[in-house]
Amino acid sequence: MDNTNQKRAIINSEIALFLRGLIIGKVLTLIVIGGLLWWLLKPNLSSPNTVDSSNQSIKSAPNNSSTFQTVANVPTDSFNYGGSTAWASIRQLVDTQIQSDRPELQLRYVDPINGSPGSSSGIRMLLDGQLDFAQSSRPLTDEEQAIAKERGFTLEQRQVGKDGIAVVVNPSLNVAGLTVDQLQKIYLGQITNWNQVGGPNLPITPFSQQPKDADTVIFPSNSDLKNQALGSNVQYVYSTTEAVRQLSKTPGGVYYASARSVVPQCSVKALPLGGTFSQLISPYRQPTVSPEQCPRQRNQLNTRAIKNGSYPITANLSVIIKQNKGREQQIGDAYAKLLLTDQGQKAIEQAGFVGVR
To answer: Is the dihedral of CA 241, 245, 250, 251 positive or negative?
Structure first.
């Protein structure tokens, strides 16, 4: 019995030793395999962290584009402004964004008490102290600068955008286009029938705003024609809206205005313009949209031709700033800087104009 028990104890001891060795061997094997796998997978495990870090750096990198929020010294107050009707889409889109991003700044558009709204009336109201700054789609005149000087300050025109000046007629009028010289002679009363410019035998009825209220000009400030009186056949209208309405029922009518304002209109047709008849450029993108397609589709401004200078008559969109070292100068300067930010320039282009930066 003792020998038998002794043998059993030896066998059990050997089995336990074997099992212990087996377990230790498996553990060591698992450790080795685990270490090998960890070494092999280490680059893959670390790469997501590298990507996350990279993405995080991109997300947290400062945006270098200028915005309405980045403009300093924007005054906190309510200000009156006015002027060009060509700026209507800017007031609707851009100024709304400005006041959303800078709620401390309140802007109020003011119509003239006498006369129609426009660049001229806005500048006149600024000179008279009725506005804090003005929006213009034409250059300042020598007379306006002289009035400002008499009153102890100067006027600065700071360009923030660019527009074309389009000539529109009744859709039924069959004429290929006009040269700038022909357009000017029409308004001076020297060309009075469409057959003089390749059109039908039909009297020309030119429509225009009163010169003192004009929003845009077709006679450059350096032209000898700038001070000449318009022809006796010119019919004066209060606004572009009224002119478009008159054109739709006047077969021989013609009118000039901001291209952004009139090119998309359904009831009028924009004419190509050129320095010469062989250089006619459309103010709209080709192909033209027919009246039957409008308003489902509308003609779009030929911004490329306006931007590269091939379109012959353009208008600078400028903020008119009263240089008097007062609150008017502060808000005029701040407003111009807001429009010249990357955000402002993008918004101006969204409003249908051409930026200057």
So the answer is: positive
